[in-house]
Amino acid sequence: MAKNRISWALRLLAAAILLQTLYFKFTAAPESVEIFTILGMEPHGRIFIGVFELITAILLIIPRSTAHGALLGAGIMSGAVLGHITKLGFSGPMFSLGLLAILVLVCCLIVLFLHRNQLPFRRFLFLPQNP
């Protein structure tokens, strides 16, 4: 029961953060355009990442696809954190965006662990076959 509550709290938190940032990506807000310009991904990368963040949020909320959403979210947020480490930095307004990326990454990793039995390739991860 506690595992289920923790899972839902982390899933909703990650999905809410992902969905909140979509507005800025899809409306070409100046801050978002600046970030993706620095990364050399403007405009197609901004839209592509936005679409995948939307898919991630939906998959996280649907119980049967939670692990897939967490896996996708962990991948996307790993890229976001790497972008902050290598090009964007963590100073000024990038600090809060970097922290949000780290928060979503941690949420997705915990949710992925909690729902690892949903993954079809769990035997390759040396996870128990009968959870």
From TrEMBL:
It is found in: Membrane. Pfam families: DoxX_2. It comes from the Bacteria. The keyword Transmembrane helix applies. The keyword Iron-sulfur does not apply. GO terms for cellular component: membrane. This is DoxX family protein. The chain crosses the membrane at residues 44-62, 69-88, 94-114. It is a multi-pass membrane protein. Coiled coil: none annotated. Keywords: Membrane, Transmembrane, Transmembrane helix.
